[in-house]
Design goal:
- The protein has about 425 residues and is of the alpha/beta class.
- The chain folds into 3 domains: about 170 residues, P-loop containing nucleotide triphosphate hydrolases (Rossmann fold); about 60 residues, Helicase, Ruva Protein, domain 3; about 110 residues, Zinc Finger, Delta Prime, domain 3 (Up-down Bundle).
- It contains 18 helices and 5 strands.
- The chain has a 5-stranded parallel β-sheet with strand order 2-3-4-1-5, covered by helices on one side.
- Helix 5 links the parallel strand 2 and strand 3.
- Helix 5 runs parallel beside helix 6 and helix 14 packs antiparallel against helix 16.
- It is elongated, with a radius of gyration of 31 Å.
- The relative contact order is 0.07.
- About 10% of the residues have low confidence.
- DNA polymerase III is a complex, multichain enzyme responsible for most of the replicative synthesis in bacteria. This DNA polymerase also exhibits 3' to 5' exonuclease activity.
Length: about 425
């Protein structure tokens, strides 16, 4: 039987000092514990994996800690060695009750919980009820808990946690102290992962950790789960290439190559890059997300150059593209990438959706560059049909000789409108 413990559980914080990225919540709770200004109900909100359950367990330990000598009181620094602290860490403390509202959402479940809350704690100083995903409770269950939530016994504390506070009734919100846990920043995630890997003596490249932080999207638990996967996938050496392959992420060189071909109006080169991605079984949905991210950084380089770190692996290519593309182009391509990703599920397949997004960027390209026609996919000799003469770009000499008022900043010639014909009044027939 394996004794391996996943990183997300092994490195779960057991005191307020080791919590990362939630200083505003930690400061408020530690001061309240130090001054013993304790509310009876708390609401923790935030996305998955940011520490709602972890903080509730640490708070329960702080309320029930007896100290190493057994004579301790409420403290902001639980000892971690007394019976209460060890039992809460192990999930077997009888006076700390965690309830999942997703599977216990009925009024009967809530009534049974409230009836038990009327009894004094069995071994602890406080009886702490932690209700996770509280927004899943039914409306009748919320109504049943209102009175007890407002005036519980002095030995009862309620901790509610939710990822969707908009669904919690205002009558419940008004009875709780609300703390919004923030998403972890990529830099904060990378720093914490570096600390863990240094302690675990596992080599890693910063580029790989940066990709893991990007994939975690603000969740430290997700980052640790991805790190576990990356360690197994890479054989104990977390590199940028291995993480990129594991997540199906497109390399920065490929994305930069697509944008460089777009600037040159080179459709075959763009499709060649897409074919390479298909051959490597990369995710086109992730590619469009990464492409939008690259366009965002290019826009920042054009307007606020200092906002993009020169340490980024794709900084040189993005800086060159920022000079080659106009701000209007960047904004247009960014919107097309976003819409292309949203429409990917409606496309015949992901390859078609991705390549149509690239061709749409070419079709709406605001510059006057000529676009080379795409050769047949089957390698035949048939040439793509040329554009009708009426759609062709006007010659430079024609633009020079045109009157000043008729010159338009566009590469497409506008055909003159036919003269308007008079329409007879209603009820009259035309003559002849």
């Amino acid at each position: 039987m394996s004794s391996y413990q996943v990183l997300a559980r092994k490195w779960r914080p057991h005191d307020f000092e080791t919590i990362v990225g939630q200083d505003h919540v930690v400061t408020a709770l530690t001061r309240a514990l130090t001054e013993k200004r304790l509310h009876h109900a708390y609401l923790f909100t935030g996305t998955r994996g940011v520490g709602k359950t972890t903080i509730s367990r640490i708070f329960a330990k702080a309320l029930n800690c007896r100290g190493a000598d057994g004579n301790g009181d409420i403290t902001a620094k639980p000892c971690g060695v007394c019976d209460a602290c060890r039992a809460i860490d192990a999930g077997r403390f009888v006076d700390y009750i965690e309830m999942d509202a997703a599977s216990n959402r009925s009024v009967e479940d809530m009534t049974a919980l409230l009836e038990r809350a009327m009894y004094a704690p069995t071994v602890g100083r406080f009886k702490v009820y932690m209700i996770d995903e509280v927004h899943m409770l039914s409306s009748t269950a919320f109504n049943a808990m209102l009175k007890t939530l407002e005036e519980p016994p002095e030995y009862v504390k309620f901790i509610l946690a939710t990822t969707d506070p908009q669904k919690v009734p205002i009558t419940v919100l008004s009875r709780c102290l609300q703390f919004n846990l923030r998403n972890m920043t990529p830099a904060g995630i990378v720093g914490h992962l570096e600390h863990i890997l240094s302690t675990e003596s596992i080599p890693a490249e910063k580029e790989g950790l940066r990709l893991i932080a990007q994939g975690a999207r603000g969740s430290m638990r997700d980052a640790l789960s991805l790190l576990d996967q990356a360690i197994a996938f890479s054989g104990g050496n977390v590199t940028g290439a291995s993480v990129r392959s594991m997540l199906g992420m497109t390399g920065g060189d490929t994305l930069a190559g697509i944008l460089e071909a777009l600037v040159q109006g080179d459709a075959p080169a763009m499709l060649a890059r897409a074919d390479e991605m298909q051959g490597e079984s990369l995710s086109f949905a992730q590619a469009l997300r990464d492409l939008a991210g690259m366009l965002h950084r290019i826009a920042l380089l054009q307007r606020v150059p200092g906002a993009v770190s020169p340490d980024e692996p794709t900084y040189a290519a993005e800086a060159a593209l920022a000079k080659a593309m106009s701000p209007e182009e960047v904004q247009l391509y960014y919107q097309i990438a976003l819409h292309g990703r949203n429409d990917l599920g409606l496309a015949p397949d992901e390859y078609a959706g991705f390549t149509m997004t690239l061709l749409r960027m070419l079709a709406f390209k605001p510059s006057g560059l000529k676009v080379r026609h795409v050769p047949p996919r089957d390698g035949g000799a048939a040439a793509a049909p040329s554009l009708p003469a009426a759609w062709a770009a006007p010659a430079a000499s024609a633009l020079e000789t045109a009157p000043a008022i008729s010159r338009a900043p566009t590469s497409l010639a506008m055909a003159p409108m036919p003269p308007a014909q008079s329409v007879p009044p209603w009820g009259e027939l035309p003559a002849g």
